[in-house]
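Fold this sequence, please.
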Amino acid sequence: MGDKKIMSIVNEDGQTEEVEVILAFEFKDNKKEYVVYTKNEKDENGNVTVYVSNVDRTNEVPSLLGIDSESEWNRIKDVLRELSNTDPAK
């Protein structure tokens, strides 16, 4: 397994947190860039919680934006589904 990719984010409280990047990708047609990351938290079923944000590079420091479009979410879920179907252990 390769090295973990860590990035720092500023949360809603203004605190800096380090998170592990799972995947970064871009939709070529709309030039929107996304990052999938985790804080390695687990839910009540023992599944690791992941977060997805739109990366905004219009400023000097990139910022993470929420995703509020249902069609955008559906495309992202397709990417995640595809990723989960490709098991690197096989």
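The radius of gyration is 14 Å. The chain has a mean pLDDT of 89.
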